[in-house]
């Protein structure tokens, strides 16, 4: 059974940093593509970043240059380093996995999801 568990969310002031982690179990981690998505109140879930099995990355325009996605295959964990946080980054952040190493930016491309972790950025 695939399980994804996020951690690292919290409350931070604008301009601050947080590092989210997503621990994966029940899958052959190195062959899975991983992604981070976020959902703010009253808005649809949106793509944030993704990483392929080979380490290629992709970012939403709104976070490029501020966020960095990485993965530690030995720990079956994917990270999202978030710097220069803005109030508009406030959302529930969820990680997702797909049984293909390709990068996908759409929610429909991912079969497995974590429950999410809250990130709140105060102004």
Structure description:
The strands form two sheets. Strands 2, 4, 5, 6, 9, 10 and 11 form a seven-stranded mixed sheet that branches. The chain has a four-stranded antiparallel sheet with strand order 1-3-8-7, with no helix packed on it. The mean pLDDT is 95. 0% of the residues lie in helices and 50% in strands. It contains no helices and eleven strands. The protein has strands at residues 3-7, 10-13, 18-25, 33-39, 46-51, 57-59, 67-72, 77-82, 91-98, 112-113, 117-122. The chain is mainly beta.
Question: H/E element string?
Answer: EEEEEEEEEEE
Low-confidence stretches: none
Cα-atom radius of gyration: 13 Å
Distance between the termini: 40 Å
Globular, elongated, flat, extended or rod-shaped: what is the shape? globular
Secondary-structure blueprint:
Layout: E1 3-7, E2 10-13, E3 18-25, E4 33-39, E5 46-51, E6 57-59, E7 67-72, E8 77-82, E9 91-98, E10 112-113, E11 117-122
Parallel strand pairs: 2-11
Antiparallel strand pairs: 1-3, 3-8, 4-5, 4-9, 5-6, 7-8, 9-10, 9-11
In a nutshell, what does this entry contain?
The chain is mainly beta.
List keywords for this structure.
seven-stranded mixed sheet, globular, single chain, mainly beta, 123 residues, four-stranded antiparallel sheet, 0% helix
